[in-house]
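Supplementary Note 3. Input sequence used for the single-chain structure prediction.
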Amino acid sequence: MYNTRIDFVSYGEVSRYVAIKDHILFVYAEEADPNYIYTVPLSSLKAVKENPKKPHKRSMTVSPGFGQGVDRQGDNLVNILLLDARDKLAYQITLDTIHDAEVADRFVLAVENINSAEKKQQKVQKE
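The predicted structure, written as discrete structure tokens, is reproduced below.
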């Protein structure tokens, strides 16, 4: 028996809908679902766009990609790595940028703003 690690998933298998509210990422199975399937608290995580030419050793390839690209994620998919305080991979978000090229940058900025607000709140509480 071999100890193998699956390092790719199909886009359709992991396709979800997300929303951020009150420092929490809500994940929904369908766009119109009234209830989320799980949440991810973002205030202690750092969001980083993954370099497809130097992928994180623990990240997953989302396949198939869109277009004719041969790179790791396809032309329109961008991995966002959510790292913990020790820079270990906690979660991975893969965003489809086909209709909005800036969505990945806005997601990273939103998580940065959440972390900044959390640090300010902690500082105020200490005073």
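The CA atoms of residues 21 and 41 lie 10 Å apart. The chain is about 20% helix and 30% strand.
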